[in-house]
UniProtKB/TrEMBL annotation:
Identification of the protein by name: Short-chain dehydrogenase/reductase SDR
Single GO term (MF): oxidoreductase activity, acting on the CH-OH group of donors, NAD or NADP as acceptor
UniProt keyword annotations, A-Z: Oxidoreductase
Protein source organism: Streptomyces violaceusniger (strain Tu 4113)
One Pfam family it belongs to: adh_short
């Protein structure tokens, strides 16, 4: 019997590590054809090979979400290779957090470019295709940082809450043939802290990751849950935290 995932063509940004990688592995295991997007070509090529060797289907597409043309190419590759695109998981993100007083303006700009504009470019690439097909599903990775604002996280939380607003508007405009899901992970053990340039903030996050983080598979399972629902059912918002997170 076809599951709600089997046979679906699912493009995932940020597939080279952490949540995106775990999501790609789980969805491929459940029969999806996954299109793997990230800048690190070695990582997504190795992941595609791993999935293929296990009997799954995957194609890597080197993608910088800061470039609109890359997102267009990602969606085009999915259609050329597999004939359609069922789901775009816009998951790529960075969190170079710091206090506003530090004026790490380049980090602010980078977060806006990757976390907000990267998602918008995904919408620009996939929405016309979803309209033409008459079906499609956007999944956007937000953060619990957007639900409870704490010092050093204001710009990061702001980018995630911008995407929350965009996603809700998209859902309202989408009509009954499209689905829009946001998922807000709590602290998850990934490489996310690598992008932090403020040493204090970096050790704060690394400390939390060591003490209470969930494995990224916890988020992958929640994304799979949203995708496997029947066409008329839209899982709007999911929050998944470690029980130890305040
Ligand atoms: P990772 O650092 O492990 O993964 C981030 C992914 O984003 C990588 O695959 C990276 O690939 C990709 N990425 C970063 N910049 C770009 C870019 N310009 N173009 C394309 N891809 C890019 O962290 P996570 O798995 O944790 O992060 C995934 C999402 O989860 C992010 O949106 C993050 O904000 C969110 N999140 C994470 C939490 C956590 O505690 N880990 C908590 C809440 C939300 P590459 O460098 O190869 O391009």
């Amino acid at each position: 019997m076809m599951s709600g995932i089997e046979g679906k063509v699912i493009a995932i940004t940020g597939a080279s590590s952490g949540i995106g990688e775990a999501t790609a592995l789980l969805l491929a295991e459940r029969g999806a054809k996954v299109v793997l997007a990230a800048r690190r070509s070695d990582r997504i090529e190795a992941l595609a090979a791993r999935i293929t060797e296990a009997g799954g289907e995957a194609v890597p597409v080197v993608t910088d979400v800061k470039r609109r043309a890359d997102l267009s190419r990602l969606v085009a590759t999915a259609r050329e290779r597999y004939g359609k695109l069922d789901v775009l998981v816009s998951n790529a993100g960075i969190s170079p957090i710091s206090a506003l007083d530090d004026l790490r303006v380049e980090d602010w700009e980078e977060m806006v470019d990757v976390n907000i504009k990267g998602v918008l470019y995904g919408i620009a690439a996939a929405l016309p295709v979803f309209r033409e097909q008459g079906f499609g599903h956007f999944v956007h990775t937000l953060s619990t940082a957007g639900l409870r604002i704490v010092p050093r996280m204001s710009v990061y939380a702001g980018t995630k809450n911008a995407v929350r607003a965009i996603s809700e508007g998209l859902r309202q405009e989408a009509g009954e043939s499209l689905r829009v899901t946001t998922i807000s992970p709590g602290i998850t053990e990934t490489e996310l802290a690598d992008s932090i340039t403020d040493p204090d903030a970096k050790s704060q996050i690394q400390d939390s990751m060591t003490k209470i983080a969930m494995p990224p598979g916890a988020i992958a399972r929640a994304i799979a849950f949203a995708i496997e629902q029947p066409a008329g059912v839209d899982v709007g918002e999911i929050v998944v935290r470690p029980t130890a997170q305040s």
